[in-house]
Amino acid sequence: MSPRDRAASLACWSGPVDPTPLDGGITNTNFVVEDAGRRFVVRIGEDIPIHQVMRFNELAASRAAHAAGISPAVHHAEAGALVLDFVEGKTLSEEDVRRQPVLERIVPVIAQCHREIPKHLRGPALAFWVFHVLRDYAATIAEGESPHTDLLPMLMKRAERLEERVGPVTLVYGHNDLLPANFIDDGDRIWLIDWDYAGFNSPLFDLGGLASNNGLSPMQEDWLLETYFEAAVTDALRDSYQAMKCASLLRETMWSMVSEIHSSIDFDYAAYTHENLARFEASWAETETR
């Protein structure tokens, strides 16, 4: 059954529906469906063990994020499918996130994610430790005879160095995938969506990912840390943050390397790998000069 047919056949619909493809998904196949005068987003996707994506975890995180007031409600869920209320608004771009007034609205949403979701989370919960993910990705890339295999010794040596520099961490509940397209601005509030990679993690991973995925300036990064932690930025915090930010870029790069050899979604993963590898190299150079 095709993803579209799967979306149309879900048990929650009141009658025949006509799913419309929703662009932008690089882990799931997404559709908009109108039913009984309401619109919904349908996410079609099975577990993806090579990316450590487990749909029970996405569902639990989505429900808790809605209860915490930062994500749309879950309308229906069944194996391989998640139906959410449609949010009418603007999907943010990197340029949007870099605008200071928008960034000032985003940071409280991240803090709310970290601090409020655990109060509503039910059932088993995953952790997301980027350095475990990187080691697992390296094995998958080598086993898949990726064209990037020759880079692995260098990349994993750098990952080991970054893990040392991050040091001890405090756990929060992270989104762990703060790409600009995962923020929607409805004019009154900013919503955070797509909880595929949610799990307990250091807050520095989300903060570093927000900065690296959206090209924040060094001045904005200092503002981000001071605002989130409500304190002046120490050299130790800045060093740990810089290492985690660099690791977040390496994870995005290796995620794409794995997707090049395993994903069936129509997306230019090779170009995405190239783009993120360049970002990682720039971040690594900055990290090593600190």
From TrEMBL:
One of its GO terms (molecular function) is ethanolamine kinase activity. Residues 20-220 form the Aminoglycoside phosphotransferase domain. Pfam families: APH. It comes from the Bacteria. One of its GO terms (biological process) is phosphatidylethanolamine biosynthetic process. Signal peptide: none annotated. GO terms for cellular component: cytoplasm. PANTHER family: CHOLINE/ETHANOALAMINE KINASE, ETHANOLAMINE KINASE. This is Phosphotransferase family protein. It comes from Flavimaribacter sediminis.
